[in-house]
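Folds vary. Our protein:
___
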Amino acid sequence: MSKRKGCNAERELLHMFFNAGWVCIRAAGSGSVPLPNPDLLAGKSGKLLAIECKFVKGKAKYLKEQEIKDLVKFAKKIGAKPLIGLKFSNRGWYFISPKLLKKKKNSYAISYETAKEKGLNFKSLLKI
């Protein structure tokens, strides 16, 4: 996946939140900073989400264990709900809690089927 597609997906999600009446900020270059730092923070009416965004071109996305630990650590410190936001090519967005991920060795794999079964689509996410 190109970095550009990932950035475009983050910007798309940012606009989706604003269009739904939420506020949202994007931490540009979040993956290049050696500190816990999610891609997006979105909030509305006391709800706060810390989201690590991933663009998925194939059947699954692999996430490093440290990425998940950093997301959870950041979210806990700020009082946000940690989520992995997955933009599946031509299939839309799904959001899954790190608690629902299965670890294999030092990484996590998330397939479209798993995201669809255990996660939330954008419309459902707005209702939490």
Q: What stands out?
A: The helical segments are 3-19, 65-78, 112-118, 122-125.
